[in-house]
Amino acid sequence: MNVSPEKMLSAFRNTAEVRIHELATASDGLLSGVEHLTALNLNTGRALLDETIAFTQAAAAAREPRTLVELQIGSITPVLRHGHAWFTTAGTVAAQAQADALRLFEAGMSQWLQGVILTLELLNRSAPAGSALAVHALRSVVANASTAYDGVTRAAAHASSTARTHVDQAASAALEALDRGTSATVSLIRSAA
C-alpha cells in the first residue's frame, strides 16, 4: 500500500478536528434550545400567574353565584390556549434542535462516506490483480447504503412534518370548538337568570 503513516495520522487528526467542531456546534444548538424553553416556561408561568390573580380578584368581587360560574367557565379556554401555545412553541424548538442535530449527523455521515470511498479508491489502486470485482462490490454496497439512508431520512422528515401539521390543525379546531361551546354556555347562563 502507498499510504504512509504520516498521511493516515494527518487524516485522523483532520477528522478529529471536524468532529470536535461538530460537537461544539451541536452543544451550542442544544444550549440555544434550552434557553428558548426556559424563556417560554418563564413567560407562560408569568402569564398564567397574572391570569390567576385576575381570576381570583374577579371571583372575590363576584356577588352572585351565576357570575362565579361564568368566570369559571370562561377561564377554561384561555388556560387551554396557553397550553396549546406552549406545546406548539416547545414542539417548534424541539423540532429545530432535532433538525440541527440531524443536519450535523448527516454532514458527518457524508464525510465518513467520502472517507470510505477514498479508502476504497486507495485500495483499488494498490490492490493485487483480480481484486477489482471485490472493490467494485464494496463501492456498490456503500452507494446503495447511502441512497437508502437518504431515502429513509427524507421519508421520516416528511412523515414527521405531516403528523405535526395534522396535530396542530386538530388542536386548533378543538380549541375553537371549545371556545364556541364555552361562549354558548355562558350565554345560556346569562339568559337563564
TrEMBL record:
Pfam families: Phasin_2 (PF09361). InterPro entries: Phasin, Phasin_subfam-1. Residues 12-107 form the Phasin domain. NCBIfam families: phasin (TIGR01841). This is Phasin family protein. It comes from Thauera aminoaromatica S2.
